Amino acid sequence: MTTSPNTKTIELPPKLVDLFNGEARYRVAYGGRGSGKSRSFATMAAVRGYIWGQEGRQGQILCAREYMNSLAESSFTEIEGAIRAYDWLEDYYEIGERFIRSKDRNIEFTFSGLRRNLDSIKSKSRILLCWIDEAETVTRDAYDKLIPTVREEDSEVWVSYNPESSQSATHLRFRDTPPEHCKIAEINWRDNPYFPVVLERERRQDLELRPETYDHIWEGGFLTYREGAYYAVEMAEAREEERITSVPYDRNTGVITAWDLGMDDSTAIWFAQYVGKEVRLIDSYEASGHALDHYAKVLHEEGYHYQSHILPHDVRVKELGTGKSRYEVLQSLGLFNIEICPMMGIEDGIQQVRTTIPMAWFDKEKCDRGVNALMNYRRDWDDVGKAWRGKPKHDWSSHAADAMRYLAVGHRPVSASWGEPIRRNIQGLA
């Protein structure tokens, strides 16, 4: 990547080049360990300071973290390392034991923890750039107080972090409902051309010995694993084999849906295509508080060509209020080719899912909640007896996990030679 003035060249992971090009108020990067995001942000902060200083602008570059009790817990070392990696940056800045600033005194780096220093940060002046590293734990209150302090003309807020929860303030603010003028990039170890050999050894060891946390640490996934998770190993392997990716809809292959029907809670639906020995999960949907006509409308609006719909056996039970079964209601709404999932014990059904996931490809965007549910689905824990119960814990993950169980138990492909395998032609599907 090149910058001006005086055309200088720096090295960045290709996936981050576009993040730093062009105008933006917010630049956000998230992902797992070894991605190079922290060093890249440190390098670009030093580059921005260089450019601004050469232009005669004066101000601060604030490097913040939620917790910082000393400079040793700050981004000081990352900034220092980034500067010393390039002679032209090292010539521009001076680095002391407790300071980093430009030799012309135009640019000064400051370091602060948000948890205990928000009031003092609010009093800082001329913040040109605020880089928040390890931002997963930053609170909504901290963002609400910090961001208005970054108010210089063309000032920017940068955020880098390893995701942990879909309910974190950072995820909700920047990924769930991104603000205007926000550029976002996901970057993981495989996107880093400078990924060191020593980390590759650690990564492989974690995959083998600690699959339950591998996805979070190395792939930038949410920390959805809980002890007792049923599919931790299978889903970790799916991530490692890059089977959580873009999975296009094949218009020449019928779509099978599998439903977990909720009465007072959520209804979850998986959309699958069977091609050869592969199970392509092209979409998923979940909602609560709706009648069956809502879900029929969703299926219609998706525009897929449906082969069949797999539903649990109790779909034939007639409801007292209407005298009709949900099977009959769905048929009246235009859903035909309904198949009733065979009766099978939950544990046997879970084992069937375990044999299905190694053949499965998941669309990364459309199946995001379903994938997280499969990684989180776990045994129930008895706090009194201090032992695992012989049944799953019923929580938010149960609905998508149950729907997947109905798919695994209820559908058998007609032919193992039907269609072209995704491993050869996924990029070419329309």
Q: Could you please describe the fold and organization of this structure?
A:
- By secondary structure, the chain is α/β, with parallel strands linked by helices.
- It has 2 domains: 13-191, Rossmann fold (3-Layer(aba) Sandwich), CATH 3.40.50; 232-428, Nucleotidyltransferase, domain 5 (2-Layer Sandwich).
- It is 35% helix and 22% strand.
- It has 16 helices and 19 strands.
- The strands form 4 sheets. Strands 5-6-7-4-8-9-3-10 form an 8-stranded mixed β-sheet. Strands 11-17-14-13-12-15-16 form a 7-stranded mixed β-sheet. The chain has a two-stranded antiparallel ribbon with strand order 1-2.
- α2 (37-54) crosses α3 (76-84), α13 packs across α15 (398-410) and α14 (368-376) packs across α15.
- It starts with a strand and ends in a 5-residue tail after the last helix.
- The model is unreliable at 1-5, 415-419 and 424-430 (pLDDT under 50).
Q: Give the structural class.
A: alpha/beta
**Principal-axes shape call:** elongated
Low confidence ranges: 1-5, 415-419, 424-430
The total beta strand count reads 19
Quickly count the helices.
16
> What's the CATH class of the largest domain, please?
Alpha Beta
Count of the separate structural domains: 2
Share in helix: 25-40%
- For the CA atoms, what is the radius of gyration? 26 Å
- Spatial strand order of the main sheet: 5-6-7-4-8-9-3-10
Average pLDDT score: 88
Characterize the biggest β-sheet. Answer: 8 strands, mixed
- Please tell me the CATH architecture of the largest domain by its name: 2-Layer Sandwich
